[in-house]
Amino acid sequence: MKLPIGIDISSNTLDHYFSSHQGKVDQGVIQNQEFSILEFLGLHDPKKVFLVVEPTGTYGDKLVELAHRQGFEVRLANPKKSSYFMKVLDLLHKTDENAAMALHLMGKSPEVQLPRFVPQSEVMKQRRQIQMAVNALSKQSQMLKNQIHALEQRLAPNELTMNAFKSTLQTVEEQLEVLKGELQQLTDEEIEEFNLYAQSVKGIGPKSAALLMLYTNGLKYFERKSQLSKFVGVVCSSHKSGKSVNKKGGITKSGPSLLRACLYNAAKSARIHNHACRILYERLRSRGKSHKVAMIAVINKLLHQVFAVVTSKTLFDNDLYLNLQNN
Q1: Contacting residues for 127 by C-beta, under 8 A, at least 6 apart
Q2: Out of 3, 167, 173, 220, which could bridge 118 as a Cys pair, Cβ 3.0 to 4.6 Å?
């Protein structure tokens, strides 16, 4: 049985923690550099251990890519879940050493389901980098628009400042158009196939399909539809204790906020044009559920529909639900 090595990733260092079957602990720090990573991996047998890491974007790319090439299984821990796990362990001080130990224990626990790392295609890697740039420039563009609007409210706005803001905004928006155009050009058979099935679901458009592909690596991280909903962060938290406490909280919001916001817009269309989503929304509203609660349910329905058509490679049938209802 393989044992986990918990690795906490930072920009310059990697803290690792491992406990053998006999309880012998091996922990330490290595540099987050290719040579140090390869040297560290060479000390371990990929048939006996696997790595548990938090997906921390660019800082963890070298580790997971090199480990995968060397034949190591890599498991991904949701940062919010690992934070909760540390609280359960009563690790009040979030140090890199404690984080590595918590990741090791998460990998050891049979109750914790950790998705496997699946490498992205070269096209997907390029798309991810461009999408990150688009996100950053979009925020910068909105910030500049807000600053220009605020400046325009003054009785005598400074002309030099106004011109600087407008010139910068023009440059940012020009670069945004270039990057968005490149995103449309970067594609391969895998992306085209995913888009074909995902966009056949009523409510899912090019943007929501692209973000789903980007953040989930074409749903390769998930074996069940419920895992996808948990990843996006649209499942409700709860608090149960004995017979007296049974509370439902808000959604976990554990996944990418950009993806969640895009899916909320997709749900607006789905509750009108997607028969199953429309009937679900109307049924919940008739029971007194709020608009927000009903919309979260619609997002979950959309995700389950996307999961079904993509994994089965079957185009969405919008009338199927109505036919089942009538039979």
Answers
A1: 183, 186, 191, 210, 214
A2: 220
